[in-house]
Specification:
7 strands, 6% strand, three-stranded antiparallel sheet, two-stranded antiparallel sheet
Length: 492
Amino acid sequence: MEQQAHYLYLFLALVVPLLVLKLLRKRGGGDDGVRLPPGPWQLPIFGSLHHLASSPLAHRVMADLARRLDAPLMYLKLGEVSVVVATSPDAAREVMKTHDAVLATRPWNPTMKIMMADGQGVVFGRYGALWRQVRKICILELLSPRRVQSFRGIREEEVGRLVSAVTDLASTGQPVNVSERIAVLITDSAVRTMIGDRFKKREEFLQILEEGVKLVSGFTLGDLFPSSRLAGFISGTARLAHESHRKCFELMDYAIKQHEEQRAAAAAKGAVEEGEDLVEVLLRIQKEGGLEVPLTMGIIKAVILDLFSAGSETSATTLQWAMSELMRYPVVMQKAQAEVRNNLKGKPKVTEDDLANLKYLRLVIKETLRLHPPAPLLIPREAMESCKILGDPKHWADPEEFKPERFDSTTVDFKATDFEYIPFGAGRRMCPGIAFGHASMEIVLASLLYHFDWELPEGMKPSELDMVEEMGITVRRKKDLNLHAIVRVPLT
């Protein structure tokens, strides 16, 4: 982001004459009668971009601007791109409920067009027959409660591997990179549910996905100034997007090939597979046919990429923030651990059967999602026609404090009926994988709290824990969380 800011100033010096001419031509077209919401003051050419240049954390800057302007609905001009930001529950309700159908599609900037060239998935797909069909497949087949439950054994096995790894480190006194360990667990769990086995090219795949996530954030010069070839050339976004897209699909080909080889080897041995993984489900649906829009291999790859990147990134990020906040609030940590240990009563390990009575643990996850929504800007929507949106600002009490108890006496939940709390979005574009992600988060957090006590590095106070964020499509910790673990309940 610092490099992008440097490019912005360089770009301003080079292309002012060109863009001024284009702006004047646009203004000459007349007023279309649309009344825009209030927004901060703008610069020629750059619009509101200089406000975002003050920090790489765009969601924090936008929230601060909205508070200062007292604007539940705020207008920003980011280069050539017009953006409206909803910052109140009522405004969000109108966007995601009242005008949901009008605002149900996704904007495609130049980078996104490249990434979607061979097939649309469910996250960034444009609203229409294909998207409705893919979402229906996700809800009924890929992410249904029955399907999520069928992967229980994978989740429990991967958590066991995590506990064993942390135990080994604890026995030698080495610190535990909690961020890394959680990311590996969530990644392996997600890949196993999708292709039935751990991905042999996991590290390469994760690196390419991370690069792709940064590219589709929409804050590159080429995306902010799509009409300028010079902007695209300076940022190199198109070249990077083509390369990222090619590598992602090559790795998907490899994953599908690995899946087919594994199934063939199992069949040759006469082994009986217990259930379908997600690739197998999609290949079956493709073979059965009868769909309004046929499932191409490009669409299948795009869906798998969406499910993997969305499900693994958000779950891992939320768990890292949950552990971070628990370390900052020792009283909350003690209460959560007491609940888990009192309910399990010395059992050798946590299973999903044990999660039903862990009410406070669920409050911890809900509060983490409130304070650290993994995608605080959600995924942008695009208006298919003009609409009128109004709203009034409302606030959480002590919004920056970590208080799981705030959810104890309220019915507010992340099921998209309470618009002051929408970490997974709402309406037609609401995340279909809530159950999938939540199942992973509960058992991981419960196991980390049950088996271990956790300590900060020597000499560090809870208030001194680094909580700096790093902006992408998701907002993760900028630095890994490193803690010391003390075994309290050995895994047997």
